[in-house]
Amino acid sequence: MEYTTAKFIHIIGILLWASSSFSLGLFMFYSMHKETGCDQHILRNFYRWMTNLEIFGFFLALTMGLYMLHLIGYSFDIRWLNYKIPFVFGVLLPLEVLNFWFVNIYIPRAEDKIKAYKKYDLFNYIVAIPLIIVSLFVIYLAVVKP
Question: For site-directed labelling of 50, which of 27, 56, 59, 140 has its Cα 20 to 30 A away?
Fold first, then answer.
Protein backbone atom coordinates (compact mmCIF):
# COMPACT_ATOMS: atom_id res chain seq x y z
CA MET A 1 0.00 0.00 0.00
CA GLU A 2 1.40 3.39 -0.91
CA TYR A 3 1.84 6.30 1.48
CA THR A 4 -1.10 8.39 0.23
CA THR A 5 -3.50 5.44 0.55
CA ALA A 6 -2.25 4.80 4.09
CA LYS A 7 -2.70 8.50 4.87
CA PHE A 8 -6.26 8.40 3.49
CA ILE A 9 -7.12 5.39 5.70
CA HIS A 10 -5.37 7.13 8.63
CA ILE A 11 -7.64 10.16 8.16
CA ILE A 12 -10.73 7.92 7.94
CA GLY A 13 -9.66 6.40 11.27
CA ILE A 14 -9.31 9.86 12.79
CA LEU A 15 -12.77 10.84 11.54
CA LEU A 16 -14.30 7.65 12.99
CA TRP A 17 -12.47 8.20 16.25
CA ALA A 18 -13.43 11.85 16.58
CA SER A 19 -17.02 11.73 15.40
CA SER A 20 -18.49 8.35 16.37
CA SER A 21 -19.34 9.07 19.98
CA PHE A 22 -19.15 12.84 20.15
CA SER A 23 -22.72 13.79 19.22
CA LEU A 24 -24.21 10.77 20.91
CA GLY A 25 -22.16 11.57 24.02
CA LEU A 26 -23.56 15.10 24.08
CA PHE A 27 -27.07 13.71 23.66
CA MET A 28 -26.49 11.22 26.49
CA PHE A 29 -25.29 14.04 28.73
CA TYR A 30 -28.33 16.13 27.80
CA SER A 31 -30.78 13.25 28.29
CA MET A 32 -29.46 12.53 31.79
CA HIS A 33 -30.24 16.07 32.89
CA LYS A 34 -33.42 16.77 30.94
CA GLU A 35 -36.31 14.40 30.33
CA THR A 36 -36.27 13.23 26.72
CA GLY A 37 -38.54 10.20 26.99
CA CYS A 38 -35.71 7.93 25.85
CA ASP A 39 -34.95 4.61 27.52
CA GLN A 40 -31.54 5.17 29.15
CA HIS A 41 -30.66 1.47 28.98
CA ILE A 42 -31.21 1.34 25.20
CA LEU A 43 -29.36 4.63 24.73
CA ARG A 44 -26.41 3.47 26.80
CA ASN A 45 -26.16 0.17 24.92
CA PHE A 46 -26.10 2.07 21.63
CA TYR A 47 -23.56 4.49 23.10
CA ARG A 48 -21.33 1.54 24.04
CA TRP A 49 -21.60 0.25 20.46
CA MET A 50 -20.64 3.68 19.10
CA THR A 51 -17.75 3.85 21.57
CA ASN A 52 -16.42 0.60 20.12
CA LEU A 53 -16.65 2.16 16.65
CA GLU A 54 -14.70 5.14 18.02
CA ILE A 55 -12.04 2.83 19.49
CA PHE A 56 -11.81 0.96 16.17
CA GLY A 57 -11.25 4.32 14.43
CA PHE A 58 -8.51 5.21 16.91
CA PHE A 59 -6.68 1.93 16.35
CA LEU A 60 -7.14 2.22 12.58
CA ALA A 61 -5.55 5.69 12.73
CA LEU A 62 -2.80 4.41 15.02
CA THR A 63 -2.06 1.42 12.79
CA MET A 64 -1.96 3.51 9.63
CA GLY A 65 0.17 6.13 11.39
CA LEU A 66 2.70 3.46 12.34
CA TYR A 67 2.55 2.06 8.80
CA MET A 68 3.25 5.51 7.35
CA LEU A 69 6.18 5.80 9.75
CA HIS A 70 7.40 2.45 8.39
CA LEU A 71 7.01 3.70 4.81
CA ILE A 72 9.24 6.70 5.48
CA GLY A 73 11.89 4.43 6.99
CA TYR A 74 11.22 5.21 10.65
CA SER A 75 12.62 8.69 10.11
CA PHE A 76 12.40 10.43 13.46
CA ASP A 77 14.08 13.58 12.17
CA ILE A 78 10.63 15.12 11.62
CA ARG A 79 10.24 17.55 14.51
CA TRP A 80 6.42 17.72 14.65
CA LEU A 81 6.24 13.92 14.61
CA ASN A 82 8.57 13.75 17.61
CA TYR A 83 6.09 15.95 19.50
CA LYS A 84 3.03 14.04 18.30
CA ILE A 85 4.11 10.47 19.10
CA PRO A 86 4.50 10.93 22.89
CA PHE A 87 1.04 12.52 23.11
CA VAL A 88 -0.53 9.70 21.12
CA PHE A 89 1.16 6.89 23.06
CA GLY A 90 1.41 8.63 26.43
CA VAL A 91 -2.05 10.22 26.67
CA LEU A 92 -4.49 9.12 23.97
CA LEU A 93 -3.67 5.40 23.85
CA PRO A 94 -3.99 4.86 27.64
CA LEU A 95 -7.30 6.76 27.68
CA GLU A 96 -8.66 4.64 24.83
CA VAL A 97 -7.53 1.45 26.59
CA LEU A 98 -9.39 2.61 29.73
CA ASN A 99 -12.40 3.49 27.62
CA PHE A 100 -12.34 0.00 26.06
CA TRP A 101 -12.06 -1.58 29.52
CA PHE A 102 -15.05 0.37 30.85
CA VAL A 103 -17.27 -0.31 27.84
CA ASN A 104 -16.40 -3.95 27.16
CA ILE A 105 -15.32 -5.40 30.50
CA TYR A 106 -16.34 -3.33 33.53
CA ILE A 107 -19.88 -2.30 32.57
CA PRO A 108 -21.01 -5.63 31.04
CA ARG A 109 -19.78 -7.56 34.10
CA ALA A 110 -21.09 -5.10 36.70
CA GLU A 111 -23.98 -6.31 38.82
CA ASP A 112 -25.09 -2.75 39.53
CA LYS A 113 -25.24 -1.21 36.05
CA ILE A 114 -26.33 2.20 37.32
CA LYS A 115 -23.28 2.44 39.59
CA ALA A 116 -21.03 1.20 36.75
CA TYR A 117 -22.43 3.80 34.37
CA LYS A 118 -21.94 6.52 36.98
CA LYS A 119 -18.25 5.56 37.28
CA TYR A 120 -17.96 5.57 33.49
CA ASP A 121 -19.66 8.98 33.34
CA LEU A 122 -17.21 10.31 35.93
CA PHE A 123 -14.32 8.95 33.86
CA ASN A 124 -15.70 10.73 30.80
CA TYR A 125 -16.20 14.01 32.68
CA ILE A 126 -12.64 13.90 34.02
CA VAL A 127 -10.93 13.08 30.72
CA ALA A 128 -13.12 15.08 28.31
CA ILE A 129 -11.32 18.44 28.44
CA PRO A 130 -7.74 17.05 28.51
CA LEU A 131 -8.68 14.62 25.72
CA ILE A 132 -10.05 17.42 23.55
CA ILE A 133 -7.00 19.62 24.15
CA VAL A 134 -4.48 16.85 23.44
CA SER A 135 -6.44 15.66 20.39
CA LEU A 136 -6.58 19.15 18.91
CA PHE A 137 -2.87 19.62 19.61
CA VAL A 138 -2.05 16.33 17.84
CA ILE A 139 -4.18 17.33 14.85
CA TYR A 140 -2.57 20.79 14.87
CA LEU A 141 0.89 19.19 14.74
CA ALA A 142 -0.17 16.97 11.83
CA VAL A 143 -1.68 19.83 9.83
CA VAL A 144 0.64 22.76 10.58
CA LYS A 145 3.83 20.68 10.95
CA PRO A 146 5.75 23.29 12.98
Answer: 140
- Please give the residue range of the domain that contains residue 122: 3-144
Number of domains observed in the structure of the chain = 1
Average pLDDT on 64-89 reads: 89
d(Cα 9, Cα 21) in Å, to the nearest integer? 19
- Band (pLDDT 50/70/90 cuts) for residue 22 is low
The answer for residues whose C-beta is within 8 angstroms of residue 146's C-beta and 6 or more apart is 79, 80
